[in-house]
Design goal:
Order of helices and strands: HHHHEEEE
Distance between the termini: 40 Å
Shape: globular
Strand order of the largest sheet: 1-2-3-4
Radius of gyration: 17 Å
Number of strands: 4
Largest sheet: 4 strands, antiparallel
Structural class: alpha+beta
Number of helices: 4
């Protein structure tokens, strides 16, 4: 059984996340790839026919910011949920005004407003959707259930282009 998450352990996790993110972002920026296009080049295979996806991002990419947030947030909410870490992630990635609206939505709906659900998904995927008028929209697909019969929910996530902070999340249809 894993050890319970304490405020110290959550703080240590945030420090570790920051320590790993800065070099990774610097490496990705130095690679010369476009900032908003996720790379899926195969990594060097451990076995001759094995192919592993490469994950990298850029500090200036709104899409990468949303992906980083959802990756860390789903991790913080999985298993024994870490409310200190998930709260710190909200403070770092969401606008103050949106956090206020999100808390109100959660009181009304009795669910996690970031995930728009009471449970935690087993996987997530973020793709660019649109941009204009100082905002970028990404589409987040949350994967639920087992691998043989997955179900999906979709969210439209609005970010402020200048700050790259998430300023709204809405449920959207699968189509």
């Amino acid at each position: 059984m894993p050890a319970p998450r304490t405020p110290w352990r959550s703080g240590a996790a945030l420090v570790l996340l920051a320590a790993l993110t800065v070099p990774a972002v610097a490496f990705a920026a130095a690679s010369g790839g476009p900032a908003d296009v996720p790379r899926t080049d195969p990594a060097p295979a451990a076995a001759p026919d094995a192919e592993q996806p490469v994950r990298e991002g850029g500090a200036g990419s709104v899409v990468d910011q949303v992906a980083a947030f959802y990756g860390a947030y789903v991790g913080a909410r999985s298993g024994t949920p870490d409310s200190v870490l998930s709260g710190a992630l909200r403070s770092h990635y969401l606008t103050r005004e949106f956090r206020t609206r999100l808390e109100e939505w959660e009181r009304k709906n009795g669910a996690d407003g970031v995930l728009r659900a009471q449970n935690t998904p087993r996987a997530w995927r973020v793709t660019y959707d649109n941009s204009g008028a100082g905002h970028t929209w990404t589409r987040v697909r949350l994967t639920w259930g087992d691998e043989k019969k997955p179900t999906y929910t979709y969210l439209s996530v609005q970010s402020d282009t200048e700050t790259r902070l998430i300023s709204d999340i809405k449920e959207e249809s699968a189509g």
